[in-house]
Design a protein that fits this description.
Blueprint: H1 2-33, H2 44-69, H3 79-95, H4 100-113, H5 118-149, H6 159-180, H7 182-199, H8 205-222, H9 227-251, H10 258-272, H11 283-294, H12 299-315, H13 317-343
Helix pairs in contact: 2-3, 2-5, 2-9, 2-12, 3-4, 3-13, 4-5, 5-8, 5-9, 5-10, 6-7, 6-9, 7-8, 9-12, 10-11, 11-12
């Protein structure tokens, strides 16, 4: 009885939390969806541009996961297995209660079925999550100088695509530096922890430094010998996604500072991690629209830009993930049936 309560109680709680979250954001989400017909005014080429950028972002994430799953004594993980698992896990995280946790379970299950050891899958997915989150948390810090220096002319929002490339180069340099110089990260942890301690007494400088050092050790161990490639893949994953947001704003005629659009992207990515709704549905749309307005984009234009970006980054991967899951499931069922005749000896 206790086992049943634990199993179904957690699931029921997840459904309730998701329902409450959707109820809270339903009015604002409905208002955004009313602007859906305005996407007809977007030129078709921009849909292609956003699709290419998002696909490239996913490929970078597959590359990163493949690096984490590679061990000297084992064959390299197949691109097909890594891509299918990530697509299916991503889709599950956006349609099922539990969000990222549910997606990780689906992705891990598919990788395990592909013959990868459980310990390796667990450590690889954890390291990928830490590294991509670390890149995301680095973006606001890198944005501060651009905000202080001042914006370029509004018509130069297209420079955001160049900014994404420059930031990727900077992130790669910082990431490799942190991985090769653990004392540097410990010093940063002491400084940040000391500042936070003044506001929150439970957070200490030593504790923050130790926590960062542990996460750094996990990432360094998972990507040992491939630090350059892993940081390049993680930065490419984030920067290509940011470039898609810039392209969405440009496609609808929006005018804003690239640095402020980057901050809007960080806010949207952070809201996507909110477990109240799958993939942050509703929260991301509301937060991203509001942040784009603060960045200087007109209210109506911000709504359409948000819809266009979310169409490419949120909705488009869901059917692809469902297809990946269906193909994987079918392959598992047909595979044994095809092999069975060969296992039967001839009379």
């Amino acid at each position: 009885m206790l086992r049943i309560v634990r199993r179904w109680g957690l699931r029921a709680s997840g459904v309730v939390v998701t329902g409450v979250g959707l109820y809270v954001v339903a009015p604002s989400l409905a208002g955004l969806l009313d602007a859906w017909p305005r996407l007809e005014n977007v030129r078709p080429r921009w849909f292609v541009v956003l699709a290419v950028l998002e696909v490239a972002s996913f490929v970078a994430l597959w590359w990163l996961t493949r690096i984490a799953l590679t061990q000297p004594a084992r064959p390299r993980a197949r691109w097909r297995d890594v891509a299918s698992a990530q697509l299916a896990g991503n889709a599950a995280s956006r349609v099922l209660p539990g969000g990222a946790a549910t997606g990780s379970v689906v992705q891990g299950r598919m990788l395990l079925a592909g013959g990868h050891p459980a310990a390796l899958v667990t450590s690889a997915l954890a390291a990928v999550g830490v590294l991509t989150t670390g890149v995301l948390l680095t973006l606001p810090v890198l944005t501060v100088p651009a905000v202080l220096i001042g914006p370029p002319p509004a018509r130069q929002l297209q420079l955001g695509l160049v900014v994404s490339l420059l930031l990727a180069v900077v992130i790669v340099g910082l990431g490799v530096t942190v991985l090769t110089l653990p004392r540097l990260l410990a010093g940063i942890g002491l400084a940040v922890g000391g500042l936070v301690h003044k506001v929150h007494r439970r957070v200490t400088a030593t504790g923050t430094a130790l926590a960062l050092s542990r996460q750094r050790a996990r990432v360094a161990a998972a990507f040992r010998g491939n630090w350059w490639r892993s940081v390049m893949a993680a930065s490419a994953h984030r920067m290509l996604d940011y470039a898609a947001l810039v392209a969405a704003v440009v496609a609808v005629g929006g005018q804003a500072r690239p640095s402020m659009v980057l901050l809007a992207y960080v806010v949207a990515a952070a809201l996507a991690m909110v477990p109240l709704t799958p993939g942050g549905l509703g929260f991301v749309e509301t937060g991203l629209t509001g942040t784009l307005v603060l960045a200087g984009v007109g209210a109506d234009t911000a709504v359409v830009a948000t819809l266009l970006y979310r169409l490419a980054s949120f909705w488009m991967p869901i059917p692809l993930g469902a297809l990946a899951w269906a193909v994987w499931t079918t392959h598992r069922r047909i595979g044994p049936a095809r092999r069975s005749p060969a296992q039967v000896p001839d009379p």
